Amino acid sequence: MGFMQALRDRWNAADSLVCVGLDPEPAKFPARFAGDPDAVFAFCRDIADATAQYACCFKPQIAHFAALAAEDALQRLVAHIHAAHPGIPVILDAKRGDIGSTAAHYAGEAFDRYAADAVTLNPYMGRDSAQPFLDRGDRGCVFLCHTSNPGAGDFQELVVAADGGACRPLYQHVAATIARDWNGNGNCALVVGATFPEELQAIRDLVGDLPLLVPGIGAQGGDVEATVRNGKAADGTGLMVNSSRGILYASRGADYAEAAAAAARSLRDEIDRYR
Ligand SMILES: O=C(O)c1cc(=O)[nH]c(=O)n1[C@@H]1O[C@H](COP(=O)(O)O)[C@@H](O)[C@H]1O
Q1: What is the pLDDT of residues 223-242, one digit of tens each?
Q2: What pLDDT sits at residue 255?
Q3: Residue 126: how many CB atoms within 10 A of its CB?
Q4: Number of C-alpha atoms within 13 angstroms, CB side, residue 168?
Q5: Where is the Orotidine 5'-phosphate decarboxylase domain (predicted)?
Q6: CB under 8 Å to 156, separation ≥6 — which residues?
Q7: pLDDT at 219
Q8: Within 6 Å (CB) of ligand 1, which residues are found?
Q9: In this structure, are residues 117 and 85 in contact, taking their beta carbons and an 8 Å threshold?
Q10: pLDDT of residue 166
Q11: Which CATH fold topology does 3-148+182-273 show?
């Protein structure tokens, strides 16, 4: 089954729009992992197992593994999620984008080496850079559109003339182009930061029911109510609301897994209040 169908099934089966971000930082791990050579895998596995019932998807962030030379842990983590929690899609957060011949290798890395169901992508290099990912119709392509960080406006909000001369911010042109022209296989989604709720509304208005991955709540200050009210699709789904640090490091004590589960449940319930 493809990523989009799996995501829709999971939204309904779990009745949750929560994306659990897996961003391991050993300095923040509970004391029991001190000295454990397999701490990165073991911690992330415990969090995934504890939060799975509240998750519509998982999003491991590749730099958090690669910087630790823990690619093997990432590979085993994705395999564990597929085996222990079948039906919950995994989005590899890698923000790839390069010339087509190189992009083909990045697609192989995400979808074949790591067995991710979807990957985050940077659309800055244009259609041909995305094509090797778009062609994998059963996998999801989650393109940066309006990001959550303070510098998001530096380029993304610049007003550009496109589509026959009409002017609009670049992020809106990105959203409309991907939804209209790049989504022939029905496998596209967009990243929109929770820290920009007005822009989130503008994007939802442009893209119909296209899924939106929304990071930036919790540690980055985004508001859940504004995110859900402005970002939900007509049927009350359409969102993957990501929380990483807010779930992973809810407790550094022996109760870290229970605390992570409670944080994921509480986010699911807060989201559900506004759907
Ligand atoms: O693509 C992403 O996931 C992403 C895009 C964006 O605009 N902002 C953003 O924070 N992210 C990622 O989402 C996660 C947010 O983490 P927390 O702020 O700890 O919830 C990190 O893994 C970021 O790399």
Answers
A1: 999 999 999 999 999 999 99
A2: 98
A3: 12
A4: 15
A5: 17-260
A6: 145, 146, 147, 169, 170, 171, 174
A7: 87
A8: 21, 23, 61, 93, 95, 120, 147-149, 191, 193, 215-216, 218-220, 242-246
A9: no
A10: 84
A11: TIM Barrel (3.20.20)
Name the token pair of 57: 């998807």
Both tokens assigned to 217: 């709540």
Name the active-site residue from 28, 59, 95, 232: 95
Output DSSP code: residue 34: T
pTM: 0.98
- Please give the distance, rounded to the nearest whole angstrom, from the Cα atom of residue 270 to the centre of ligand 1: 20
Ligand 1, atom 24, residue with closest C-alpha: 61
Residue 162 has pLDDT above 90, yes or no: no
Is 95 considered catalytic here? yes
Domain residue spans of the chain: 3-148+182-273
Give the residue-averaged pLDDT of 235-261: 98
Q: Residue 93 C-alpha to ligand 1 middle, in angstroms?
A: 8
